[in-house]
Every structure is written in structure tokens, then in C-alpha cells.
């Protein structure tokens, strides 16, 4: 009986997120933000990059919700907070921030590959 690897679970979660996002009106905009997110994380840090993303997406930030689900719920990094991944980072320690950043970057690799494969490119 084979068990899924972490990389397989990460890819499956990102694939499911892409499938849910495809039907949204802002799917291409979300994909555009997701593509820029790794560079924003490297430049400013995960918390600041997520805050910027939330400001750009206004209310319905499905990308932040998907990242929260993966990092906090699935990978169990940090203590779950109602406000999502940003609140988890604020209340967490440096180890939480490091682990969450690594997971977000790895998840975004899959998400961005799948977004491109599904034709979700921002114009």
C-alpha cells in the first residue's frame, strides 16, 4: 500500500484550488497575483506579501484562503486563527514563519504551473 508523498499532497491541493478558481470571475487576476507572490515574498516577507495580496483582492481572497487551508489546516503549521494565515504568522514565532514561508513557496510552484496549464494567465 503506497502512501502519498508530501509533494503529491501539495500538488493535489494546488490542483483542487485551481479547479475551484477557474469558475471565478477574477480567476485570471488571482493567477496573476499568484505568479507575482513568490517574488513579493522574497522581497518583503510572507506576512507583508499576503497583506498586499489582501489589499489588492479586497474582500474575496480565495488565494489567501487556499494558502491558509494548506499551511495551517493541512500542514498544521502554527495555531489556527479565524483571520487566516496572516493572523497565524503574527501570533507565531520565527520557526512558524520560516516553515510557513517554505510551504507557501512550494505550494505556489504547483499552483502556478497548474494555472498556466489551465490557461489562467493575467492579461
Distinctive features:
single chain, 123 residues, mainly alpha, Peroxidase, domain 1
Descriptive report:
The protein is mainly alpha-helical and 123 residues long. The protein has one domain (6-117): Peroxidase, domain 1 (Orthogonal Bundle). It is built from six helices and no strands. Helix 1 (6-21) packs antiparallel against helix 4 and helix 2 packs antiparallel against helix 3 (46-57). The termini are far apart.
Tell me the layout of helices and strands.
Blueprint (H helix, E strand, L loop, with lengths): L5 H16 L5 H18 L1 H12 L4 H13 L10 H7 L2 H24 L6
Mean pLDDT: 91
Largest sheet: none
- Which secondary-structure class do the elements indicate? mainly alpha
N-to-C series of helices and strands: HHHHHH
CATH C-level class is Mainly Alpha
CATH topology name: Peroxidase, domain 1
CATH architecture identity: Orthogonal Bundle
CATH superfamily: AF1862-like domain
Task: Write a short abstract of this structure.
The protein is mainly alpha-helical and 123 residues long. It has helices at residues 6-21, 27-44, 46-57, 62-74, 85-91, 94-117. The protein has one domain (6-117): Orthogonal Bundle (Peroxidase, domain 1).
